[in-house]
Amino acid sequence: MNAIIPYIWPVVFALVIVAVLPLIAGYIVLVERKVMADMQVRLGPMRVGPHGLLQPIADAVKLLLKEDIIPESADRLVFWGAPLISVTAAMLALAALPIGPFFQIADLNIGLLYILGVSSLGIFGIVLGGWASNSHYSLLGALRSAAQLVSYETSAGMAIVGALLLAGTLSTRGIVQAQSDIGVWFIFAAPIGFFIYLVASIAETNRAPFDMPEAESELVAGYMTEYSGFRWALYFLAEYTNMVVVASIAATLFLGGWMRPFANTRLFNFLDYFPLLLMLWIAGYCFRRTPKQPVPVQKMFMAAVGLLCLVLAAVFTIPVIAPAGSLLAAAKPGIHGAFWFLFKVAAYIYVFMWLRFTFPRYRFDQLMRLGWQFLVPLSIVNVMSIGISLTLHRQLNWPNLVAFPVGIAITLAAGAYLLATGEKHEQTRVGEDENAEVDSREEETPVNAV
Amino acid sequence: MVPIGHYVFLSVALLAIGIVGVVTRRNVIIILMSIELILNAVNINLVAFSRLVGSVEGQIFAIFIITDAAAEAAVGLGIIIAFFRNRETVLADEMDILKW
Amino acid sequence: MLFNEVMFYVFGVMAVVSAILVVTRRNAVQSAIFLVTALLATAGIFLNLNAEFLFIVQVILYAGGIMVLFVFVIMLVNLDVALHQVQFNRQWFVALIISAVLAAQVVAAIAVSRHTLYTLAPAAPETLEPNTERVAFYLFHTYMLPFELASILLLVAMVGAVVMAKKRV
Asked: Which positions ≥6 away from A371 have C-beta within 8 Å?
């Protein structure tokens, strides 16, 4: 019996995460549509529930009731199993993420590598799904996806190595602890690393402007062309789970994990009331909009959402005002940690959406050139300059404020050099014979991937 | 820990399967995959004995073997692509001329 | 303790079965899928042996890197014709001889070391902790030169692969 006890909480957390995740993914889709609508000066989904709040559930019901079509010439077994691989890989990666100091399924001593490794298995789901469909669009999408993921995994991995050098540990909890000890989030110690990771993580999750594998105007829907109904929903779930995973890695590694901004400075303690104010603001909005809803049911629903926000506000505030030393005050790190972690994840995902609706899509050879000729060299320089900064700081006792800007300056110089030479290279390429250019580009894409 | 003999048996079994694959298959890609199986079998042995004697040096060797496997796969697949481009085949016994 | 032993047999059976399927499947893509399962099962065995770092190296490099490369190339050269060709050559007896020799060696090994093979006590698991740090120490300290040579090997392989796969050099 005693052997089972340490496994109880992890299993409960895992079950909660697996149960809640589809809902979260659905609501990320809703938020994405709302953000898109906002940027295009529209309203977005408004019909199902007040302000479209029940839209994800309607979508899910529609997808589940749809016919599950398997193409006649498909490899049935692989076609059937490929989406499962994607979803499983994405969900396994969540196991090592620290959502606040208390909520974590397992604190592995290879934590970050585990997340990277497991999420890199998701690519099999995409490639095999595209192959098994036995369709040209699917296969092209899958091949593009494989090449893109393998390419950008390199630079993402190198960016992470830079931050790992600073932390000196692979355990996700240890990384956040290291940021607390050093007194500054790693985004300020290694801003270029964060930039590289941001670009690479967008490419890894196959999102615009790098959504080549599923580019609607070129490949119908890429590797998902032949999928419908539930299996298609699984691919979507995997994609949005992957977004949550990369956002969580970025939050843990570069944005201070569950720590609030200026966690060690007493002067900024008023930030503890930020969750309260946010919740009150949302609740106030809900109550203000309640009388304007057309149907009584929607009025009740809107008011219920407002009340829920008030309850959350209370949950966030009670540990802050509770007397020090009591049980309620002891719960503060857990509750507020979870809030700040999820807040950072949400902000990162918002940046994803913002970029998606702002930038046009890259061409495939541009994508490969950006990955291999700019990001990979820059990330290698980034790792080396962080090493230089750390040597200056630890061996020669230079202060933090001098040592790290030196490293950042080296990386920036390298980046500027790469940009300048890349542009020159581009110009000479355009000057060449046009036909030969098109020809060799098509042949080079697989080579780059190999 | 399971007795070391069981690890050795597992390793030998994988090695034998890999050798059978290398010797009997015609498709070069599957021959390459069988070679990966053989390397993998060796890794199991190294790691099991590293655990037995309580030193990580066996794992270091396994890491070198994995590096080697990566290099071998890259070059081997490059050769396969080059060959396929010229002869439109991936069968080992049709690769029977030295020059074209 | 019992859990660990059960997991070894689960992973072992998984590895052997998928290895057999790798060798016998007609379709190269299916072979690749089963090779991935075999490699992941081996990774599980590594984890069972307290080799966490090697476990993750196996997953990232082998399953996530090398096998993606394999699948990629299989799809590039995938021929519908290839499925209808004879998949095995006539060297069954060679394979048989080699397997017989291997089996004989195993029998001989058991005969020689049957006293120690099942009774050797493993070292305490703490001797391998902390795994990542120890691996790093050996890799960058004792085995520094082989490590650098391995990186040169990778560089050579990279250049070789690019040259090989390029149409016009």
From this structure: A148, A151, A152, A154, A155, A200, A203
Contact C68 A127 (CB under 8 A): yes
Contact B71 C58 (CB under 8 A): no
Query: What is the pTM assigned to this prediction?
Result: 0.84
What is the three-class DSSP state of A98? coil
A61: nearest Cα among A88, A26, A19: A26
CB atoms within 10 A of CB A405: 13
The pair of three-digit structure tokens given for residue A397, joined into one six-digit string: 């006792």
Residue C54 CA to residue C60 CA, distance in Å, equals: 10
> Residue B88 region, left (φ>0) first, then alpha (ψ -120 to 50), else beta?
left
Q: Residue A444 — pLDDT band, cuts 50, 70, 90?
A: very low
Smallest Cα distance from C24 to chain B, Å: 8
CB contact B99 to C (< 8 Å): no
3-class DSSP state of A50: helix
Alpha carbon B46 to chain centroid distance? 15
Model confidence pLDDT, tens digit, residues A305-342: 888 888 888 888 877 777 776 777 777 777 888 888 88
Q: Which long-range contacts (CB under 8 A, 24 or more apart) does C93-100 make?
A: C94/B23, C94/B24, C95/B19, C95/B20, C95/B23, C95/B24, C98/B16, C98/B19, C98/B20, C98/B23, C99/B16, C99/B19, C99/B20
pLDDT on residue C153: 92
Q: What angle, 0 to 180 degrees and rounded to 10, lies between the N-to-C axes of helices A122-132 and C28-48?
A: 160
Judged by DSSP in three states, B91 sits in strand
Let me know the angle formed at the C-alpha of A302 by A298 and A307, rounded to the nearest 5 degrees.
Answer: 145
pLDDT value of position A1: 54
Q: State the Cα–Cα distance between residues A207 and A198, nearest whole angstrom.
A: 12
CA distance A234 to A297: 31
Are residues C64 and A446, on separate chains, in Cβ contact within 8 Å? no
C133 half-sphere exposure, CB direction, 13 A CA radius: 8
Instruction: Give me the phi and psi of C88, to 5 degrees please.
Output: -115, 145
Q: Kindly report whether the peptide bond that precedes residue A101 is cis, defined as omega within 30 degrees of 0.
A: no
Quote the ipTM score.
0.88
What's the pLDDT at C13?
Answer: 92
CA nearest to A356, candidates A233, A256, A216: A216
H helices of chain C, in order, are 2-24, 28-48, 52-57, 67-76, 80-84, 92-117, 131-137, 144-165
Could you give phi then psi for residue B27, rounded to 5 degrees?
A: -75, 120
Residue B59 in contact with residue B46, Cβ under 8 Å? yes
What percent of chain C clears pLDDT 70, i.e. is strictly above it? Answer: 91
Rounded to an integer, the average pLDDT of B45-68 is: 88
Please, which pLDDT band fits residue B89 given cuts at 50, 70 and 90? confident
Give C93-119 pLDDT, tens digit per residue: 888 888 888 888 888 887 887 777 777
Calculate how close chain B gets to C2, using CA atoms only, in Å.
Answer: 9
